[in-house]
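Q: May I have one protein plus its fold?
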Amino acid sequence: MKSCMPFLYHPTTILLVDDNAEFLKTLKIFLNDSFKYLLDKECSFQALEILNKTSFKKNFYEDCLYYPEEEKYENHSLSINFLNIHKEIFNPDRFMEISTVVVDYSMPAMNGVEFCQRIANPFVKKILLTGDADEKIAVNAFNQGLIDAYIKKQQIDFPEILEKLLEKFQKTYFSHFSKQIEAVFSPEDQENAPFFSPKFKKYFQQICENKRIEEYYILEKMGSILCLDVNGNYGILATFAMDEIATILESQEAESADPLVIECLKNKTHLLCYKQNENTTLPPGFLWKNYMFKAESLVTEQKTFLCSFVQGMFNFNKKDFLSYDQR
């Protein structure tokens, strides 16, 4: 099965657990200050309680998957409710979600491996900090899948290695979560949706870097993505496969569209970007000029897509959700 890009991403919290308060304070100074950190130096049991109280989107995951009513008792085929994915922007606690734990092995109440074994969230990434004497224990814990990485505190480049791991694990946290939803895609869906294409993933990564995107949410099956920057300014990356454009041109709505609009669609210089819902139909053709946006072609491994980044179109009210700079 091909690998899909995460269905959503937003900044999360990193939990640092060590009984040495000075070490934690110093460590935080060296780490990327764009991350949000939660320090626990008092008691590993307390840190574990905080961690296990943090929701890992179980309800969100269940809301995104459903049984179509007519199939519920026949073949139990699951479908994805894409409309619920972007609703996570209205969750003010989403940035408090703990994605990664950095824990010292040598602690008085319980050691770091025992701590990791008690974490309830199966998607949390676990980094164990060790001394030279603990390395064999760390290797065994890694081989057993109890931790995702370990670092020796004595390493000269310790902060740099840890920071790279934190950046990587913030992303893989959502990759592993999304695999639960990804399994619903049929082989045909994988061929038609851009999310499985390495070239599309690279293209989207460049957009995120250029637009300074901090969080995103897939809006629908064929490629549109809601993107937000650190201040909550948003845009939609609209994506259409070329054969979808052909279907639009053959639709009944196209008969009442402006000839200039039809010409732009035929020439693949523009696409239609409009808000979709559960019973989405095309807007009336005479309104298409209001939804036309200049597009660029993206040739991927399986097909060619038209893409356009459209800013501020769907009238989301920034007062209704917490942006990352307000956290």
User: Anything to note?
Assistant: Residues 187-326 form one domain.
